[in-house]
Amino acid sequence: MTDESPKEEILINVTPREVRAALLENGVLQEVTVERAARRGIISNIYKGKVSRVLPGMQAAFVDVGLERTAFLHASDITRSNGQGNGNGDGENPDIRELVREGQDVLVQVVKDPLGTKGARLTTFITLPSRFLVLLPMGSGIGISSRIEDDTERQRLKDELGMIVDDCDGIGGVIVRTAAEGASRDALRADLSFLTKLWAAIQVQCSKASVKTLVHEDLPLPIRVLRDMVTGDVERVLVDSEADFDRMKAFTESFLPELTPMLELYKRRRPIFDLHGIEDEIKKALDKSISLKSGGYVIIDQTEAMTTIDVNTGAYVGHRNLEETIYRTNLEAAVTIARQLRLRNLGGIIIIDFIDMEVPDHRERVLEVLEKSMSVDHARHQITPVSPLGLVEMTRKRTRESLQHVLGEDCESCNGRGFTLTAETVCFEVFREIIRQHRQFEFDEVLVLAHQDVIELLLDEEADGLAETEEQIGKSIRLQPESLYLKDQFDVVLI
Fold first, then answer.
1. pTM
2. Which pLDDT belongs to residue 401?
3. What CATH number is given for 423-494 in this structure?
């Protein structure tokens, strides 16, 4: 292993209950995927489910697949009896009641993990991916990845695969993945043979399986990395587990022999994620604020509805004028935002509030830099032009939970609000609660239990308010600090 960092590399850290994979470009962390044994993602898993409820008003159905929450199946994600598409752009969808009925058994695949309080999103349009191809048993035709831009290569792949498909009867549709660029006919044939055998095995398993059970589970993370993340730019894959290294090597030798030379077993004492400061970068990815090298900063706020991103100049003052300062800050922020979206795995609706720019060319250039920086993102996304309010609206496909949701939880102090009440506000609530209790009950004395900061404020700046409350109720008020109380917690005890 050389000291020089390759253009792209993937580092895989394996512990008994957790696997993490990091994608680095020129030594800089771009993506991180975390899979825990207790919370393993279920995307691409295939289940034999039962329709528990049909909702005509939503044109959807809830399907019980044996998970904690029933999963969601929209009419647009249901294949027709004639084998035609999944409703994405092939005309209006039939009524949901014509497609499924309550109590019906259905073979479904997960396209989106459960997120928050929402159940998994399902489709009956099964897809089976391999290294070069995606088999669509319910589909038809041959599609080529839009990331393969060379027209000659696109036509070659279509012709090669066409000849292979002609030799097979009733295999459905096939999509050629980006990784297939330059692949030989034999490699494509081997891929398709593997997928057809896999689909046949799934059909047999489905016929035997009981309802609400898992029929086919997607590959574990280390193997999925080889299938989905290794592109032509990746020069090596480092893994720190000998057992997983052996499994990955066996997989590549059987299905992806060209990837075997890339695999390396990491044997150094230094933890693998300490290389290139990956652990520090993961911690930074949980912060709301990201500092820019120029002195500016970016604020990222995740909410249930959307993610909002605000750009600020901070300490950056530029060298020419205010407009130049704003322009340079926005350019740097555009690159940073694109990386953070990948690193944090943020999806859904994203609103970016760049600093207002007066020069139209500057706005266009910032948008171009953002689009270029996002072009390497594997997740499907769409960016709109700058709005009249100076906002950039975009969407990014959300399939798995964000890094923040995987690694964190709501703060006990603020319950996810992002703030807590001040000690002063709590003091006023204490006064109101004492008066409320005085009007309802008889008592001789009041004991207030609260955080130390609140008690100190009641004895100092709010001492006059405390005295006035004692006078109003005609009873004495005792104060007692509680070390286990949060700042906005208190109790009023009547004695």
1. 0.74
2. 81
3. 3.40.1260.20
